[in-house]
Design brief:
Number of strands: 20
CATH class of the domain at 164-303: Mainly Beta
Pfam family, one: Methyltransf_FA
CATH architecture of the domain at 164-303: Sandwich
Protein name: Snaclec agglucetin subunit alpha-1
CATH topology of the domain at 164-303: Jelly Rolls
InterPro entries: C-type_lectin-like, C-type_lectin-like/link_sf, C-type_lectin_CS, Ca-Dep_Lectins_ImmuneDev, CTDL_fold, Methyltransf_FA, VWF/SSPO/ZAN-like_Cys-rich_dom
Shape: elongated
Organism: Holothuria leucospilota
Structural class: alpha+beta
Order of helices and strands: HHHEEHEHEEEEEEEEEEEEEEEEE
Number of helices: 5
Keywords: Disulfide bond
Length: about 375
């Protein structure tokens, strides 16, 4: 156990810091020595190394991994005497209520008890916090581990005042860009299109792409032509479907997901993909553009379908492909869902009872 599993350069100062910091988890005379007979610490040590290599100079992920090991120890019948954080240099300054875990500027606690969405809000509020607001990939990964990959409520509700923005493509075979760029953490898109001819949409790293720029271009076919996805406007197809996806004279709604190198498009509120491609070298998507061929098209881009109950800016999402689907127009609350891909989100019925995560500011 002497090599970090993250991105530290071998022999670097960062590698030495990661090893030195995480060694408290495996030291025979360390604060967790009483746990070693109940749970092997190796996995937690290696996870600590990987996390620190990705987040140094911050050492907060050490405290998180140490706390995860403690929980695993206790679940297997072990115990740690006293307040272990007081004996560990990197955690002694963390001020969170008992039972809460620190991450960046907040404290978090996972509750296994099953509650409805409103009941979960009441529990968190009664303890001086709120249902968790997730605003970054790092925080989402942290919550996924903390909540033990269960279906748990997170603090977002359907935004009943949400609307859509309408744009027109004039059919002259040139792309029209949306006026605003995509927020850095948003990795999904829902839109509708009404057109008499095939429609195209691109996800681009630049607002001025040419035919060879690396980007994701989707063709949504009308009539009996072929729909496809490709990695530039002149590139070969990465995936295709030999049937029309665009029905004339009505709005056709679609979703596109583009995270972790998985690029997928499908019909909104339906399971599965029509087009799917895994990119080993993902493109950083910043702009969206659209066009129709020969005839005018109407495009509706749906905005802010959910809103954080803390009213923080919606600058990150991680929806499961095809979600939020709002089944029967009654899925108005948001959960983490691990049935398909770890850490993804799903809208669900607020009356369902689930575990949940509370968040509060550090003291």
């Amino acid at each position: 156990m002497d090599e970090p599993g993250g991105s530290c350069v071998v022999g670097s100062e960062e590698e030495a810091t990661a090893i030195d910091t995480c060694s408290d988890i495996v030291r025979k005379d360390g604060p967790f020595a009483n746990c070693y007979d109940f749970r092997d610490p190796t996995h937690f040590y290696e996870s600590c190394l990987a996390d620190l290599c990705a987040t140094l100079p911050s050492t907060e992920m050490f405290c998180f991994n140490a706390n995860q090991y403690l929980q695993a120890c206790v679940l297997n019948g072990g115990s740690v005497k006293g307040d272990w954080k007081k004996d560990v240099e990197y955690c002694s300054s963390v001020k969170c209520p008992e039972g809460y875990t620190a991450f960046k500027d907040s404290c978090y606690k996972y509750y296994r008890m099953k509650k409805t969405f409103d009941e979960s809000k009441a529990v968190c509020n009664g303890r001086g916090g709120h249902l968790v607001t997730i605003t970054s990939r790092a925080e989402n990964d942290f919550i996924s581990i903390l909540a033990e990959e269960t279906r748990s409520w997170i603090g977002a509700e359907r935004n009943y005042s949400a609307s859509y923005k309408t744009f027109i493509s004039d059919g002259n075979n040139s792309y029209t860009f949306l006026p605003e760029s995509i927020p850095g953490g948003v990795v999904s898109l829902r839109f509708g299109v009404v057109a008499q001819s095939s429609a195209y949409i691109i996800l681009s790293p630049t607002i001025n792409p040419n035919e060879n720029t690396s980007l994701y271009e989707f063709k949504i076919a009308a009539n009996q032509t072929k729909s496809f996805i490709r990695r530039c406007m002149r590139c070969p197809e990465k995936d295709f479907e030999k049937r029309a996806l665009l029905l004339r004279s009505q709005e056709n709604r679609f979703f596109i997901n583009f995270h972790d190198g998985v690029i997928a498009m499908g019909r909104y509120k339906k399971r599965g993909f029509n087009l799917h491609y895994t990119d080993e070298n993902p493109i950083a998507v910043k702009y969206i553009a659209f066009k129709t061929l020969g005839t005018q098209g109407t495009w509706n881009f749906y905005d802010d379908e959910f809103i954080w109950i803390t009213y923080e800016t919606w600058g990150y999402d991680n929806f499961r492909s095809g979600e939020p689907s709002n089944f029967n127009n009654k899925e108005n609350c948001l959960e983490t869902n691990y049935d398909f891909t770890p850490g993804t989100w799903n809208d669900h019925f607020c009356f369902q009872k689930k575990s949940f995560v509370c968040e509060m500011e550090r003291e």
